[in-house]
Amino acid sequence: MNPQLLNAITLIKRLRFLLAIFPLVASAEEPGNPLIKDYGLKDYIRTSKDLPHSEEGPWKLVCEMPYNCHFQPAITAEGPAGQSIRFNSSNPLVLYLTKTENCTTVAGNSFYEAKNWVSGEGAIYTIPAGVTVKSVQYRETGFDTEFAGSFECSDSDYTTLWRKAARTAYICMRDHFYDCPDRERVGFWGDGTPEMNQCFYVFDSRAHRLAKDLVLRKLEPKFYPGQHLEFLSESGLWFYYLQTGDTESMRMIYDTTKAFLFETYKFGNPKTWFDWGKEVKDTAVIETCFYYSCLKTLRSMAGVTGHEADFPVIDAKMAEIKSTFDSKYWKGSFYMSEQVKEPDDRANAMAVHSGLAERAKWDAIYENVLIKKTYSSCFFDRWVFEALCMMGHEEAALLRMASRYKTMIPCSFTTLWEHYDRWWASRIDSMDEGSSLNHGWNPPAIILSQTITGISPEAPGWSIYHVLPKEAFLTSLKCVVPTFKGKVAVEMKKTATEYSLRVDSPPGTTAIVGIPKRSFTKLEAIKVNGSAIWSGAFIEGVKGITWNGEDADYVKFNAAPGTWTFTGTGTLPTLSTKPVPPPPTNDVALDKKSWTASACVPDGTFPFSGAKIPIDISAANAIDGDHWTGWRDWTTLQTPGQWFQVDMKREQKFHRIVLDNTWAQWDTPAGYAVAVSNDGTTWSKPVATGSGELGMTNIVFPEQKARYIRVTQTGTNSKYHWSIYELDVYGVVDQGSP
Question: How far apart, in whole angstroms, are the C-alpha atoms of residue 72 and residue 68?
Answer without folding.
Answer: 13
